[in-house]
Amino acid sequence: MTRTIQNLIEQRVSTSHFDTTRLVSDAQVHELVRLSTLAPSAYNFQNRMFIAAQSLEAKERLKAVA
């Protein structure tokens, strides 16, 4: 069975191993954000903010403040 990102999200599976050489398209980022908004939050507020860092420089800046 092929496991897609959507299947993994829906099954609430996390991973610590991933391929850093694979690129994620804008369409995939939008779909991930859409799927993420479906998850419940505390008190059902769904107050979220998403940051999609795609360049190496942006990822390093985000890592520094995370």
Mean pLDDT metric: 83
* Helical/strand content category: mainly alpha
Helix content: 40-55%
Largest sheet: none
- Strand tally, please? 0
Number of helices: 3
What percent strand? under 5%
Model regions low in confidence, pLDDT < 50 over at least 5 residues: none
Distance between the termini: 35 Å
Taking Cα atoms only, what radius of gyration do you get, to the nearest Å?
14 Å
H/E element sequence: HHH
What does this molecule look like?
It is built from 3 helices and no strands. The protein is mainly alpha-helical and 66 residues long. The termini are far apart.
Descriptive labels:
single chain, 66 residues, mainly alpha, 3 helices, globular
Produce the secondary structure layout.
Blueprint: H1 5-10, H2 26-36, H3 56-65
Summarize the structure.
Helices cover 41% and strands 0% of the residues. With 66 residues, the protein is mainly alpha-helical.
